[in-house]
Structure formats: structure tokens, C-alpha cells
């Protein structure tokens, strides 16, 4: 697999950026979580090639995509549907981590014709998160080292999201957007989780503070054609155990 190609997609006046890892395989749309971006799935794309062509979106307000006027459920789902339309895809597997997982199963609920299967990673049908802590992060610093020092312990988790701008070093997202996005992601989404009928895989990190073992088991028990894989990680399963994560995804996709 060669270098990914970056595409620009315009949706309702804002520009989205999406990585296409290429190939002739079947399409898989990958949706990252808060603070992240599409390139987080580069290793997975290599593991799935050549059978699967991974399209990894920088979701609104993240990575190289523009900030949006809102971070509503409708906005995120509309973005995902528009990206599939841009690539002419009408039958994709949709994989989503955290925020991306909600967007994935809501896309399947509201546009079942676009989604042939789901891989939902580390998010529940009931969401109650708080990202207000990120509002204390600095906006700019004169050097990368100074910016990382200002971030403190958070710098380790945000290394991929730090970039140089004309006025200094900063993050690829606006913290206030992330806090707003999380607020609008919170809620009871059981109807969306249960309304789609396509095959689904739920991947759970057993040391996660986001998705409990009890809710993961309940989600699988209540939704037909749904499998559960548990890995001994925290919330960022694909980063902490990339081998186990890829193996679970490959096995699920092989059964479609």
C-alpha cells in the first residue's frame, strides 16, 4: 500500500479532509474520536489491505478539516454520509472509535442503505462525558517544547495533534469545540443503537473509564447480530493494542 491520498469534501459550506488509503478492496469508512484525526487509522489500513480500502475522515473541527458552526448529531452524521457520496460508496463498513462510534451507529440508524456493517469501538448507547478540562490547555506557544511543557501530562496523549502555525505552536483543534461536541454527544442513544439491523462488532477495552463492562454486555445482548470483543486496554484500544485490535477487526470482516 502506498501513501494515502488526501481529498477535500465540501459539506454545507465547510470543508472536510479525508484520507483515502486506496486499493481495489471493499470500502471501510473510519471515524476517529475527540482530539484525534483520520491518520490514527493508518496502521489498521495497512493491516486490512488489499482486501479493504480505508477512507479515514478528519471529522469536523479535527485535523485538517475546518471548524464548523455546530457539532450536532445531525452535523456529524451528515458529514459521514456526504463523504461516502463523494467517493460514490453506497455499501460501506463503518468503523468508529468513541465519538466516531456514536456517529457510526447513528449513520447506520438514519441511513441504513449506506452501511453494510458496523465496528464500534469503546463507546456506549448511553453517553455522559465531560471534556471541559481541555479548556485549560494553552492556545499557542513559541516552540513545540514550550507548548508541550504547558500541556503537562496531557502532552503525551496529544503529540499527534500538535502543529506549527504562523503565530506559534498549537493544537489541530479548538478545545472549546471539543467541549461543545462532547456536550452534544451526551445522551441516551439506545434507539439509534437498536434500530439498525446490519452485523456489528463492539470492541471494549476492559480497563476503560468510558464504556463499562456491564453496558458493553447489555449492548450486545439487546442487539441481534452483534459480537463483543474485549481487550485488556483502556479507552484508546487501537493505539494501546494495535495487533489485538486489528486481529479482531480482520476476523469480523472476514465473516461478512
Automatic annotation (TrEMBL):
InterPro entries assigned to the protein according to its UniProt record, in alphabetical order: AB_hydrolase_1, AB_hydrolase_fold, AB_hydrolase_sf
GO molecular function, one term: hydrolase activity
GO CC entries: membrane
Keyword Thylakoid: no
The AB hydrolase-1 domain, residue ranges: 27-241
Keyword tRNA-binding: no
Keywords, ordered alphabetically: Hydrolase
PANTHER family associated with the record: HYDROLASE, PUTATIVE (AFU_ORTHOLOGUE AFUA_2G14860)-RELATED, MONOACYLGLYCEROL LIPASE
Protein name, per record: Alpha/beta fold hydrolase
Native species: Streptomyces typhae
